[in-house]
Amino acid sequence: MHESSALTHIRKLTNSSVNCSQLDVELLMMHVLKLKKNELYRDNPQINDQNKKDILSLIKRREDGEPLAYVLNEKGFRNLELYVDRNVLVPRPETEIMVQTILDNFDSKPHNVIDLGTGSGAIGLSLSKERDNWDITCSDISIEALKVAKKNMISNSLKVNLVNGNWLESFQRDYFDIIVSNPPYLSSNDPSVHSDGLKHEPIIALVSDSEGLKDIEKIINKSSKLLTRKGCLFIEHGNNQSKQVCSLFKKYGFSEIATIEDLNGDNRFCSGRL
Q1: Local structure of residue 3 (DSSP, 8 states)
Q2: What's the whole-model pTM score?
């Protein structure tokens, strides 16, 4: 068995890897060795042949463009640590803005909330973490995605209702105070769908017909029948879809329509109230 120090191996792997940064190498090594970063650099442990094999296997996945979150099966979102795999989208920092906007606009009194297309549960579970008296439902058409959301609910010691369904089809009128969704909004001919950044993620969570607006319109239409009086809908959309989405809010009778910018200053979210 050949052993070498972790720090020596980090330098070697970083120099030899084409598409894997030093930070990625560090994180993958920490994952394999089950160490925190300060422990890795403080102790500089010896790594054996099996460790090296495991690390190289993970690096190969990164070099093939697989998101780091899938390789590690973990992603931080606000104050949660989430399990993620290829059955769900990797939660993005931009979506945290939508969660914060909801928290800023609704006080802590009880509310009935649904997170549509929940995936990993990032939005619904984050709201549950900070508003433990809200009745929150996390819904998804994918059974496999709901398994991931359930795993995250349990690991974060939270409680939400998990529902398998296609958007809002199984619910009755005047039911929710808040509806929130990060739905598929890319067009099928959008070149980014096949880029390294997205090609490993579930296509059902990325692409929608009608230039990416079909599912958004379904949600807005159905939400207009399922929100309570003064209830609010929050939707994430593409950075070039703001005008179309605001028009759909108006079409289905929403007022107080607002756009919200993402971290890059692009209009990324739309909200409206009945």
Answers
A1: -
A2: 0.89
